[in-house]
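User: I'm new to structure prediction. If I give you an amino acid sequence, what do you actually give back? Let's try with this one:
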Amino acid sequence: MRRSLIGAAAVAAVGSLVLSGCGGSSGGGGGSSKGASGGAATLKLVVADYGTGPQNTSSKYWKGIISAFHTKNPSISVNVTAINWNDFDNQVQTLIQNHQYPDITEGDYFQNYAQEGLLYSAQDALSKPGNLLQAFKAQGSYKGTQYGMPFTTSSRTLFYNKKLFQQAGISSPPQTWADIKADAAKITKLGKVGYGLPLGPEEAQAETLLWFLGNNGGYQTSSGKWEINSPQNVQTMQFLQSLVKAGLTEPHPGTKNRTDLWQDFAAGKIGMINGSPALIPIMQKAGVLKTSDWASVSIPGKSGPLSTTLGVCDNVAAFKPNGHQAQIKKFLDFAYQDKYQLQFDKEYDLLPATTSAAKALSSDPIFAPFLKALPNARQYPSDTVWANVKSQLQHTVGTAITGNPKSVLDTLQQTAEKGA
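Assistant: Good question. You get back a string of structure tokens that encode the predicted 3D arrangement of the chain. For your 420 residues, that looks like this:
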């Protein structure tokens, strides 16, 4: 999801843009009714805007693809609507409710559309669905069939300020929780924040899961049973509580959002923080840390670096109602080429969603640590109860730091089990 991938940064809303190479209007269902067998048609593409302003709006990215595609497929036009991420969910849902069906969406994946029979499967919408990163297959599947096709991905690593580490006399990045505690104490003596712990409502669910994973915990077991209040998760929150009580984090982590602490890290005020590739442009914009002043490594766990981490993705969904399967398949095969995947990643500091593009980017010094983490990435629960659990967690898990960790996790567990 966009909010998971690159946070809640405000982006300029982009209106509906017709970026096709020839004329063609949408029919009542959202696209031309012609061409069901692969002939002339106009596709309706609805995408989320990943840009931070007019200079890098997603519409520019898609315009290049559409122009090149139309040159090779002159009978197929594509109308694209780029929507601000703050409005994407509501606008897509409104389109579906009004039966103004898009042919393709790129952004959040709604499992209920597959449940309602509105989507083509990945097998029907792509010539090479097996090239999609398999780590995200289950997240995009309904009853064992994949419908949500990852288009862009992200994973988490630990960022650390190499300058502060050097000043504090720390020779290597942390690998264990004990290392984090010891390193944070040394950095705190410099008058800086040792470790940035964002447990505010923006993305507390991500930070919490990363720490749970470090102690062989999580939100659910591999069989789908909720384990929020497991002994290892309680122990994890107790460790975080010890960091805060020792003054090794920022004050009041339960009120601190990820975006704010990322900006503080970019300003050189924090020694360590969990992050995604989206932290990179924030550092570049701040202009305080040069590329040589920071690095990222696998997230430390209780006993050693994690072999898995949080992985998130935004998905493509291909809709059936307009009957454009052949044209959709041609366009998606074109759009999923490695060169376009890599162009997207470089532009928006995200990761590819195909095995071939990931391999092509594997030697990149910045992206390599994140790519290394993707194959074993853990996703959020796909359970329909997760929406309620996540909302409650975002607003309450921070209180576990100042109160009783077990009591807070018990309440979250009860919410999950009641909705199951």
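You can read the tokens as a compact description of the fold. Here is one thing that stands out. The chain has two domains: 2-154+312-376, 157-309+383-419.
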